[in-house]
Amino acid sequence: MDPSRVAPSGPLKKRPRQVRASMASPPYDIKFRDLVLFILEKKMGTTRRTFLMELARRKGFRVENELSDSVTHIVAENNSGSEVLEWLQVQNVRASSQLELLDVSWLIESMGAGNPVEITGKHQLVSVKTDYSATPNPGFQKTPPLPVKKISQYACQRRTTLNNCNNIFTDAFEVLAENFEFKENEVFSLAFMRAASVLKSLPFTIVSMKDTEGIPCLGDQVKCVIEEIIEDGESSEVKAVLNDERYQSFKLFTSVFGVGLKTSERWFRMGFRSLSKIRSDKTLKFTKMQKAGFLYYEDLVSCVTRAEAEAVGVLVKEAVWAFMPDAFVTMTGGFRRGKKIGHDVDFLITNPESTEDEEQLLPKVINLWERKGLLLYYDLVESTFEKLKCPSRQVDALDHFQKCFLIFKLHHQKVDSGKSTQQEGKTWKAIRVDLVMCPYENYAFALLGWTGSRQFERDIRRYATHERKMMLDNHALYDKTKRIFLKAGSEEEIFAHLGLDYIEPWERNA
Ligand code: DCT
Ligand code: MG
């Protein structure tokens, strides 16, 4: 569990607005040093002003709390030029040609573009001349108008990088989705996951409800949450969930490897609220997986870094190639999508030179590692992959390939400094690793399936079914109209069969 996500317990109260407004924001790097913004509170209100100031700072703009001589741009909302000038007069400030008086639309467009957009007449409240061509400003870049393109309801028709402009909303949705998942309310959980997914693909930050127009997958319940966050900076529903005892317990229990919803429910009903009580209870029976989960708990909840994933990758390749020198070994999952951290490391293995004893590879690798004392836990799942009639209808179904879920004992690289930040005397870290072995002819499908994200996989399968009358899973693509399997040797070919533009792995972070 990430304790930072759990709000302190106590009665639910709305924070007084003044307190929020005066809260210091964390320092952000200033990217556009020639601009100093001041956002006018008049007719905008304190909360919205605080929200916009925070966002703008996050985007690299320098925003002043107070109006001072250094301010170059005043941003106002719902104010006419003369109203702003009048306000300035009261403040004893004279508008000069050095000062831009702008409508909030300029700031919103600039935050969306990631840099200050060119100021045009529609942004200027008062036409006090500023000739930027005469005084070139590196902060200003002419950005082409954003093409108005309909956003697809399918993640496989959107490009979603790790650059999420809408964390403030997607983090909230993910808490709500998880809470519905804990309550086994799949419909609501999916609704919030889809909403999070679509907002992650936007190249701009949502700052007003107007920005949500035309965006698919945003139902009324989702919009309510967005509106509350825009107005108050947070969602009371999310706050309540984070404070909820059942949510907190489920979050904690499911953070143990091998513990799912059923077990969490049982422990919660039995009155357990902490892992230490569960661990030391004499009457409870644990599976082999859960025992390993408790034993290596601290290591497993601390995320796997890319460096650790790469180190495991080297060892996986070394072991695989010892028995099958021509095998392809590919790191899949989040790391293939460019993530810097993950909860495990996923590998897909295939042999381009099909041989009889292919299914012996994983047992051999496991045997080798066991002899070397590198395995802390493993579960080898034999292939249930026979001649499948057609791909599975279930969008979340697991595939039939032979696989091994394991916990690897990764020894730390020797460091020169001598000092170690590791636990006293401990020279290794337990890392969750998934190895999947697939026949070469299924490789492209398995690679697409194991690269994720989960939401991307759900949507590309849903797209195949509903838009193309095809069935896609980790093994194959079946055309129901033509009644044939469509072969593919690469992910690009699968996208082409589906009539989709190719989406790179790092654009699949839906
Ligand atoms: N996958 C899927 N459906 C599931 C489970 C997994 O399509 N029910 C796919 C998507 C990602 C891939 O398998 C690996 O799964 P995880 O390791 O759970 O996801 P990840 O994206 O690698 O995330 P993390 O960084 O947390 O490991
Ligand atoms: Mg993973």
Short overview:
This protein has helices at residues 17-22, 46-58, 81-90, 104-113, 167-182, 186-200, 220-232, 236-243, 245-253, 261-269, 275-279, 288-295, 297-301, 306-323, 333-336, 361-371, 443-451, 454-468, 491-497; strands at 37-39, 63-64, 73-76, 100-103, 304-305, 328-331, 341-342, 345-350, 375-381, 402-411, 428-437, 470-472, 477-479, 484-485. It has 510 residues and is α/β, with parallel strands linked by helices.
Distinct small molecules: 2',3'-dideoxycytidine 5'-triphosphate, magnesium ion
User: Which spans have pLDDT < 50 for at least 5 consecutive residues?
Assistant: 1-23, 128-147
Note the total helix count: 19
Number of strands: 14
**What name does CATH use for the topology of the largest domain?**
Beta Polymerase, domain 2
Strand-pairing-aware structural class: alpha/beta
**Through-space gap between termini:** 22 Å
The total domain count is 5
Largest sheet: 5 strands, mixed
Question: How much helix is in the residues?
Answer: 25-40%
CATH architecture of the largest domain: 2-Layer Sandwich
From the alpha-carbon coordinates, what is the Rg to the nearest angstrom? Answer: 27 Å
Shape: globular
Q: Which superfamily, in CATH terms, is the homologous superfamily of the largest domain?
A: Beta Polymerase, domain 2
- The CATH class designation of the largest domain is Alpha Beta
The main sheet orders its strands as 6-8-11-10-9
Mean of all residue-level pLDDT scores:
87
% residues in beta strands:
5-15%
